[in-house]
Specification:
This protein has 465 residues and is α/β, with parallel strands linked by helices. The protein has 14 helices and 20 strands. Helix 11 (219-228) runs parallel beside helix 12 and helix 13 runs antiparallel to helix 14. It starts with 9 loop residues before the first helix and ends with a strand.
């Protein structure tokens, strides 16, 4: 008997992942995704050359700016696999294809139905950090999301007896879809009244909720408001923070729960990286100390240098490759999340043999800044690419600061010109390139002298908070 998804020995797991990568790249994404087909050709690579774990690791990471370089979200259509009935026969897995062909002999329409289940997009969710674009799912993709959700319930230590009330926004995002299908796959009742306090209070009055889902941002304030409204929280044993929380987010929510008399409630994080459709979670045994557990047969997760997109060591940007998803398919996708590590091997607390994303910080590379011109998501990866790619800039720093005059956020770019470069021309050129790369001018370009560049703690070595 084969080991379960989270208990496979290393050799068996590696073999299964190699096969899944080959199927995804060679039989699906390479031939049928316009974006990836064009990207592989531009890189001088074939589908076969990247259809292994090693080949995949050598593929340069890509993100939303590569997908939509002009900021037009219609470019996201290039991610969708475009395979008809003839294409299906080329990429479908052997057992599924044989089943479809057998049915075709008895009823031709049934073959069409099977093909459409695997290849025709039936639903969409919104994604994007610096820009907003749709992600497509086929019927079979939704089955994968539901199956991953049932696994998530195992990791979180939940059962079909748990009753879930979600206080997340009801917008069609991958996060809300993953939570809804996860509860469905696990057999748990779920009520999703939205973010209004009175709606959440009403839902809690209707059912004996054991699980409360709150957004990471504002979760503590929401719990305080529920307490003030005398919501029925006494049956809650688990609180899920949706979105990889920062330490202060977790601490604030823990304090609010303790003040609400929920000292024994287990606090865990769940998270869907941008562009993905599967929800990761922290295991109940660790209480969140061992990271977000992933699904090794459904995805490949890695870290890259946030400034260059190249493979690196230490803290890096989370990149992922989806396995088995046939709508909008992602290879080496830059999520905008930062993490300290992707830990391999069994979890020291729950013993599941799955990669774990440790120290994840959601959207750290595309923060929302409250600028004088309004709130704006700024893609720091694009800024780094624009400044670091200039031959007349020897070194640089990007500083996210707060104006002493009006408390608005500022994006400051400090540059050290190369030998012989004109300082004024460098400043003008940097400002222009940053605007082209991320759609906005920096608050100021500061030309520095040798040894005067800012130093300190930051997102990366050159991106400082």
């Amino acid at each position: 008997m084969a080991a379960s998804w989270d208990r496979r020995p290393p050799a068996q797991l590696t073999k299964a992942r190699e096969a899944a990568v080959r199927t995804q790249v060679v039989d699906a994404v390479g031939p049928f995704s316009p974006f990836w087909r064009g990207r592989l050709k531009a890189l001088g690579k074939s589908s076969a050359s990247v259809a292994s774990l090693a080949g995949l690791a050598a593929l340069p990471a890509a993100g939303e700016r590569d997908l939509c370089p002009d900021g037009n979200p219609s470019g996201a259509a290039g991610l969708v696999l475009q395979a008809g009935e003839s294409g299906y026969a080329l990429h479908a897995e052997g057992p599924r294809l044989r089943k479809a062909l057998t049915r075709r002999l008895a009823a031709p329409s049934s073959y069409t139905a099977i093909v459409e289940q695997d290849t025709r997009p039936t639903s969409y969710v919104w994604a994007g950090l610096g820009l907003r674009f749709p992600l497509a799912s086929t019927r079979s993709d939704l089955d994968v999301v539901a199956r991953a959700g049932a696994r998530l319930w195992q990791v979180l230590g939940l059962t079909r007896a748990d009753v879930v009330v979600s206080a997340l926004a009801t917008l069609p995002t991958a996060q809300t879809q993953a939570l809804t299908l996860g509860a469905l796959g696990a057999g748990s009742p779920l009520l999703a009244p939205g973010t209004r306090v009175d709606g959440v209070v009403g839902a809690l009055a209707l059912v004996p909720a054991t699980v409360l889902v709150v957004p990471t941002t504002g979760g503590a304030a929401l719990v305080d408001a529920l307490v003030d409204a005398e919501a029925a929280l006494s049956t809650v044993t688990t609180v899920l923070m949706a979105g990889a929380p920062y330490d202060e987010d977790r601490a604030d929510l823990r304090e609010a729960l303790d003040a609400a008399g929920l000292e024994k409630a287990v606090l865990l994080a769940v998270h869907v990286p941008d562009g993905h459709r599967l929800m990761w979670g922290e295991c109940r045994q660790s209480g969140g100390s061992t990271g977000l557990h992933t699904y090794p047969d459904l995805e490949v997760v890695d870290l890259v240098d946030p400034e260059t997109g190249d493979a690196g060591k230490g803290t890096g940007e989370v990149v992922l490759t989806q396995l088995g998803l046939r709508g909008s398919a992602l290879l080496r996708w830059r999520t905008g999340d930062l993490a300290d590590a992707v830990a391999e091997g069994p979890c020291p607390k729950c013993s599941r043999n799955v990669p774990r994303v440790v120290g994840a910080r959601r959207a750290a590379l595309v923060p929302e800044l409250s600028l004088r011109t309004g709130t704006r998501a700024v893609d720091l990866r694009a800024v780094a690419s624009a400044v670091g790619g200039r031959p007349d800039v020897r070194d640089w720093r990007v500083v996210l600061g707060r104006s002493a005059r009006d408390e608005s956020d500022e994006l400051l770019v400090h540059v050290l010109p190369g030998a012989g470069a004109d300082a004024a021309e460098v400043a003008v050129g940097v400002a222009r390139d940053v605007r082209v790369a991320c759609g906005m001018l920096p608050t100021q370009v500061v030309v520095e002298e040798e040894g005067r560049l800012p130093v300190g703690e930051g997102i990366t070595r050159r991106l400082l908070g």
